[in-house]
Records
---
Amino acid sequence: MRNYGEALKYQREIHELSQTELAKRTQISQQNISYWERNTYVPSIENCEKLADYYGITLDELVGRDFRETSPTVKNTYTNNGTHNGNVNF
């Protein structure tokens, strides 16, 4: 399982926010942010959307996921230099 807590903490820290500051700006409790960063609980998709929107990033970026590395269907549609070959099967 992916370490979502580390990814959430990374985003908060690169935006130079304390848990308390992030809580005030997003209306998410500081306690929840702490739980998520310690992997005690996993945030709901709604809270992930709220955080991603606040940071101005995608949900994939929020949780440290690169779809080209994790999805065999999509990965196979990219050439070695990272360009798309035109065959995406979703």
Note: The chain has a mean pLDDT of 82.
---
Amino acid sequence: MKKQLLFIGVIALASFTLLSMSLMTSLQEKPWEAPAKYQKMKNPELKNADSDQIGRILYSKHCKSCHGSKGKGDGKKSASLDTKTPDFTKESFKNQTDGTLYYKTFIGRDDMPSFKKKITDTEEQWLIVNYIKSF
């Protein structure tokens, strides 16, 4: 009788674990769609002598630890995240609208934090978007 209860307990625990892993995987793979107003948002295409340099500095300060120095999603913190860090060099990333990139960068979701309060200057926000598009 004890062996049967132990067996049932092990099966129940294994089932619960598999179900939990399945739910976590499905949540992680959920597409991240930006609201329509952001998808249509226009990039002011800010260009001055220092814009690329400022974008790189801001990226290094706020993004590099997860997204990596080359934007491949291989930063030193990326392995500790629950969600996959995107590769900015892939076409699937590059095909997103500028407004979508803006939304994902500054609104955030799950492991991607919101930067609305950390980077409040609109020009700096767009300089980061423009920099990550350059990978």
Note: Residues 10 and 56 are 52 Å apart (CA to CA).
---
Amino acid sequence: MVCFSSGCDCLVQALFIHQNFPGQYRHLAPVIAARPGARVVGLGERENISLPGVTHIRYPEPQGAGDKTHHYLRSMEASIRRAQNVARAMVDLRSKGFRPDIICCHPGWGEGMFLPDIFPRAKLLQYCEFHFTTAGGDVGFNPAHKVELDEAARTRLLNLPQTPALEAMDWGVSPTHFQRGRYPEVFRHKISVVHEGVNSEVATPIGPHHLKLPNGNVIKRGDEVITFVSRNLEPYRGFDVFMRALPEILARRPQAQVVLVGGEARGYGPKPADGRSWRAHLLEELGDKLDLTRLHFTGRIPHPALLALFRISRAHVYLTYPYVLSWSMIEAMGCEALVIGSATPPVQEVIEHGVNGLLVPFYDTAALAETVVEALANPDRYAPIRKAARRTLLERYDLQSICLPQQIKLFDAVLEGRAGDSVILAA
């Protein structure tokens, strides 16, 4: 049973809220908890979370929207139910004597709606991950998909769950300039850019560089390996584009092996019209154009295995809509993988073509195939780019030397009420 003394003389009490806690707070929350006299609580839906010094409280996963809910408002209803569960958990914390001086919250699923009503004196630092619009982002990016009024209206309302939190926040933080730039100026002027950071001592070219594939074969550094990694294999991450480029790549590089990491559940976008996974859909579409003996679908794999794969990769393909940038791309760069990325804003913020990676137009399968074939054929030519990729991690996204210190600096600025004088906009 969790109990807090109302007479506590703690130097700081902090509350971290994230639907998938610890999420982006995995490193910051324990650092704050390690301060003398600190008291730190984390709220989230996941079970069995253990972080040093952090008291973890799980709130119940909310019900979704009802069958009769207007389809524009289904995500909003689910978010309100989640906000209620978070509010009840906070009321319980308050009854046990917990009074946070600062609340760090990811409000994207509604968690931040009622914070000021329960802890009115707490400073509010919101995590501003993505603001939806009907142009310039993920919606409307696919030229083959026309955004009708019904979809545009529904998209605009996707921002409702985070709006109360944005209005109440003392300050906000986004991991990239692209993501910060998605927010209206009325909020943007109070948002700093601080990336979560990648551990350069883990994402490093030094370490295991062999991997056993599902068919029992072992690949190793020096083999002709193409890699593709996404939480789910879906068009938002260019899975369809990559698959359609493979027949040309495999025909021209008969020794190449392709390793695809990711699940088959619905991720950020819709499934194919027939309801199957995108993997099943594209394998049927491409048929005998693909040599399936050289395609290796691993599903999701443990993080150490993923890093080993990056060390092996001769060409790592990372494509994305104008959407949230994956941590995995920077991890691949840290392992000195040659990243062939999409010329879309999230990637272009990190990769300069020909300097620390290669860029191709998102939908240009011919350009993608040509670039991958060239990378496979002449690996030594790209050694300087691989080295520069790791320097990018070390100079801009390193967890311990850059990003975590910036997170701590921003946390303290908001806690002390001086965020307006200490805006951090990472280079």
Note: The chain has a mean pLDDT of 93.
---
Amino acid sequence: MCRNIKTLFNFEPPATELEIRDASLQFVRKLSGFNVPSKANEEAFDRAVEEIAAVARDLIASLVTTSEPKNREIEAAKARARFATRLER
């Protein structure tokens, strides 16, 4: 799994269009093996990013949960603490 792809569901405020597109871009980069596609592959690459972003938006909108939405700042602090722990090892 791409470490740069973050969980987008059940956050307050909800995921933005930019966050969804960025996650989709990372996913397509991982699948294709390209950070930047060649001119010959650019159209297919961009189309895949947009299609995956649309599916991701639909998925996020369709999911339900009974748990409280997570706070972005608290989750970011937890991630920084996990990272610091890994560095100490």
Note: The first strand starts at residue 11 and ends at 12.
